[in-house]
Amino acid sequence: MLGHGADLDKIKRKYRIDGPIIDFSSNINPSIPDGLAHMLVANIDSLRAYPDIEYMELRNTIAAYIGGLGPENICVGNGASELIFLFMKSIKGSLVIIGPTFSEYARAAQISGLDYRIVSMDVKGDSFELAGLDRLDAIGDLEAIVVCNPNNPDGGLKDLSSLVKYCHSRSVKLLVDETFIEFCRDYDDYTCLNYDYEDIFVLRAMTKFYGMPGLRMGYLLSKNKDFVGRLYSIKEPWTVNSMAEKITIEVLKREVENSYTFGENTRSAYEKERAYLVRELDKIKLIRVYRTDSAFILFEMDKALPYTSASIKDCLIRQHSILIRDASNFYGLSDRFIRLAIKDRKSNEILLDALFSIFGGGNL
Fold first, then answer.
1. Confidence check: pLDDT of 124 > 50
2. Looking at 128-137, 191-200, 272-281, which range is the least confident one?
3. Which of 46, 158, 275, 333 has minimal CB crowding within 10 Å?
4. What is the DSSP annotation of 276-333?
């Protein structure tokens, strides 16, 4: 059973909600590129033709947007999820997933019949940190490691230099999910595209940062063009539809032409709202707010509080029409963890008022 994203219509029916729901469960940019509606109308005829089966203009556009890579270093897919599954189908050895993290890595590994295990990060103060890597040596036939950076659900941006060094020294492939990294200030200093190691594979997407999850457009980047070619050899044709192809080309070309203005404006807005939400949440007694650099915030309730993440979620949706992410189903997290998307100031204020009413003595 799949459990991703907020099915708001289903939630409305379940809780008999007639009005709008403020969705803090999905980490999607509330802003979208200027002129998107016009782009959609202008490209409507693209639906009457097959997309380029090799996606050369799309790959060249992504290469220009990223810089330093050619089209042979890029594999496009129906969201980052398709590329996760393709990667898993392309390896045979053991796999390590750094957790707690996005569940699709484990699901894809399981479906592909891989021997995998989840290795948990250490909690140090208000952050999740990579644990000692030497313990991975006990894993036989280790072929690949998967890590999310910044990590979902905590949002912390990690220095992965030690992990890259470990993988390089042992010829282990490293899949790095960077679908949230563009939300982070100075993300260019942290991206794994900076490393020379050929067997690093970086995931990006239009889903989160450009606020278009329905477009289903993701891409994998790697200096290992032979492996990228292998992905295409097992990939189904035309998984990126013509509209997604055209819109991505136009959005990314405009972003380059406009000196990455949308990206800078987005990072500035998130930087401001992230600091505001963390500062206000820190006023609530007996919760720990974890350090975040991205589009969402993870907090943990102390055991002294008479609540669970499920009860808080239920209260917020019933009494305030606010939907949050119960994070208890992330591997290694208890029923005290909640993840919140960062939204615009008005929505953030509504959320905080609701949380203060609960933790200040409100009834569940």
1. yes
2. 128-137
3. 275
4. HHHHHHTTSTTEEEPP--SSEEEEEE-TTSS--HHHHHHHHHHHH-EE-EEGGGSTT-
- The pLDDT-based confidence of 363 (bands split at 50, 70, 90) is low
Q: Based on C-alpha coordinates, what's the Rg of the chain?
A: 21
The CA dihedral of 317, 319, 321, 322, to the nearest 10 degrees, is: -60
Q: What mean pLDDT is predicted for residues 8-18?
A: 92
Indicate the Cα dihedral angle 140, 144, 147, 148, nearest 10°.
Answer: -150
Range 89-108 average pLDDT: 97
Residue 4 confidence class, pLDDT cut points 50, 70, 90:
low
Query: Which CATH number does the domain 8-30+261-359 belong to among 3.40.630.30, 3.90.1150.10, 3.40.50.1820, 3.30.1360.170?
Result: 3.90.1150.10
Would you place residue 1 in the very low, low, confident or very high pLDDT band (cuts 50, 70, 90)? very low
- Options 3.40.640.10, 3.20.20.70, 3.40.50.300, 3.40.50.150; CATH for 36-257 is 3.40.640.10
CA atoms of 237 and 268, how far apart (whole Å): 38
Residue 60 φ/ψ, nearest 5 degrees: -65, -40
* Residue 261: predicted pLDDT: 98
DSSP state at residue 214 = G
Task: Indicate the residue type of 209.
Answer: F
Q: Can you tell me the distance from the alpha carbon of 280 to that of 352, in angstroms, rounded to the nearest whole number?
A: 8
Nearest to 339 by CA among 186, 163, 150: 150
Number of residues that this document lists for the chain? 364
Higher pLDDT, 133 or 232: 232
Quick check: 178 and 203 in contact, CB under 8 A?
yes
Distance CA 290, CA 297 (A): 7
Alpha-carbon distances, residue 70 vs 61, 65, 76 (angstroms): 10, 11, 13
